Amino acid sequence: MPYDLRSLIQSRLGENYDLHDRYVNRALVKVLRTIGFDKVYARAEGPWLYDREGQEYLDGLGGYGAMNIGRNHPDVKKALADLMAMNMPNMVQMDCSLLSGLLAEALVKRAPPHLDAVFLCNSGTEAVEGAIKFARCATGRDALLFCKKAFHGLSTGSLALNGTGMFREGFGALLEGGAIELDDFDALERELASGKYAAFFIEAIQGKGVNYPSDDRFWPRAQELCRKHGTLLVADEVQTCLGRTGKEFAFQHWSLDPDIVTMAKSLSGGLVPCGAILTRRAIYDKTFSRLDRCVVHSTTFGRNNMAMAAALATLHVLDEEKLVENSARMGGALMDGFRALAGKHEFIKEVRGKGLMVAVEFQEPRSLLKRGVWMLLEKVEVGLFTQLIVMNLLKKHRILTQVAGRHMNVLKITPALTIGPKEVERFVSALDQSLEECLKLTGAMFEMGKNLAAAALAARKAA
After folding, report:
1. What are the CA-CA distances from residue 350 to residues 165, 215, 358, 375 (Å)?
2. What are phi and psi of 133, to 5 degrees?
3. Exposed, middle or buried, 169 (CB in 10 Å: 0-12/13-18/19+)?
4. CB 411 within 8 A of CB 386
5. What pLDDT shows up at residue 184?
6. Which of 251, 325, 404, 440 shows the smallest number of beta carbons within 10 Å?
7. CA distances from 53 to 14, 40, 57 (A)
8. Positions of the chain with pLDDT lower than 70, given as ranges
9. pLDDT of residue 379
């Protein structure tokens, strides 16, 4: 009897959180249940999720930015089905597969011309790990420079580049590195002048908080100083590549020419994990410098046919549907809509972002009633106000979003690049209503706030 996956899913759908509580991450299950995110999604298409009852949810989280072309795109599914039907050999290892060569060629064509060599891998953190090795091998230096509040991954090498202490806590000594604040020109010049850094890893637009320099001269100055002092400039585009910010790469907003670029997330088409490192040929060849070093950096699944097919189809969809351009248009419309709310809602401090990587930052309001609602939550833990808004957006408006980082009052939205005016209006209207509803000290919003504060206090006590 053939394996019947469809029947297995249909018979056990709904056990999701119990299974994870028993066998996987109990802490995550508890968090999701506390904030009302323990939904059981049964189907997904484009920018939409559907639960078992068929209710639609607008996905503003987008798999942390992995769903640029939307979920379950038919072109990617067809490419994978075609590949499976061909029975091609996969992961022979001691060969050079066609699809990995074709993907490398396609990525080079999309990148600045000096980035002419590609290493293919499985994920963002793996791409960053490879970039660390390439940079250290090419320069002969060990230390790494990064920005405070940065996020570059969670394996131990990339963890050394994380600017948030919570992620580093408990994991022991990490690689040597230094951290600077965005817009701190003095620190930038001082650190790079030391001559000890192999690479300066940047997110042109940071994923945690959607932050970027307020002074547009900062990134170009960083590139200039890297060239002067022999430090490689590495642009981490894991979350921002392939149109997320309204350009092919986020670094293009500042006209940068990085030495190494890391990619992943949306390259997968949302279906098969795929990552890549793009770099100068001279840097690449410093690592693979002799015949006996031809596999000195390698990965078993990095060039697998399924990932390559998904990525090639994804690039086709991005071009065919002009999604990079749509990201710029719809992102502008979304931010304009949110900014229009600022005159109505004192809670809104700033709306920022580029393309469809959008953040709304909240602040303590001036008026007494609104300040009371703010203080009720913020005295328990910074960021709980935004978490309450996120919870209400899901519960009442069926929109999935996220708080941009711990102890941040920043709402982050990264939907599929396929959204149109209808979805933009839904986001804006829902945020407008949620900010109105948070002032009502009765009903569901009050209960959510009370439960959220109680959970935060319990977590603090346990810690």
Report:
1. 25, 16, 11, 19
2. -65, -45
3. exposed
4. yes
5. 98
6. 440
7. 12, 10, 12
8. 441-463
9. 85
Pairwise CA distance, residues 215 & 271, whole Å: 38
Q: Cα-atom radius of gyration of the chain, to the nearest Å? A: 23
Structure tokens at 408: 């941040």
Identify the residue whose tokens are 């209808």. 422
Contact status, residue 411 vs residue 404, Cβ threshold 8 Å? yes
Q: What pLDDT score does 207 carry?
A: 95
What's the CA gap between 142 and 162, in Å, rounded?
17
CA distance 158 to 171: 12
Angle formed by the axes of helices 443-462 and 26-34, nearest 10°: 150
| Distance (Å) of CA 214 to CA 50, 128, 210, 336, 360 | 39, 26, 12, 19, 16
Specify whether the backbone of 75 is left (phi greater than 0), alpha (psi in -120 to 50) or beta: alpha
Q: Which two tokens stand for residue 308?
A: 């390559």
What pLDDT was estimated at residue 444?
58
Q: Which residues of 435-455 are buried (b: 16+ CB within 10 A; e: fewer)?
A: bebbeeeeeebbebbeebbeb
- All residues at 6 or more sequence positions from 336 whose CB lies less than 8 Å from its CB, including other chains: none
Q: Which two tokens stand for residue 171?
A: 């994991």
Question: What's the CA dihedral at 178, 179, 182, 187 to 10 degrees?
Answer: -50
Cα diameter, the chain: 72
How far from 444 is each of 258, 399, 411, 439, CA to CA, in Å? Answer: 49, 16, 20, 12
Domain boundaries, the chain: 35-69+323-462, 74-320
* Distant-in-sequence, close-in-space partners of 305: CB < 8 Å, separation ≥ 6: 83, 88, 90, 91, 97, 99
How would you class 158 by CB atoms within 10 Å of its CB: exposed for 0-12, middle for 13-18, buried for 19 or more? buried
Pairing of strands 275-279, 260-263: antiparallel
Tokens of 459: 């977590």
Among candidate residues 111, 45, 107, the one with its CA nearest the CA of residue 76 = 45
The CATH architecture one would assign to domain 74-320 is 3-Layer(aba) Sandwich (3.40)
Q: What single-letter DSSP state applies at residue 231?
A: P
Residue with tokens 């022979």: 92
CA 215 from centre of chain:
23
Yes or no: domain 35-69+323-462 corresponds to CATH 2.60.34.10? no
352: its two tokens:
């920022």
DSSP secondary structure of 172-215? -----EEEE-TT-HHHHHHHHHT--EEEEEE-SS-TTT----SS
Structure tokens at 383: 């960021």
Type of residue at 54: G
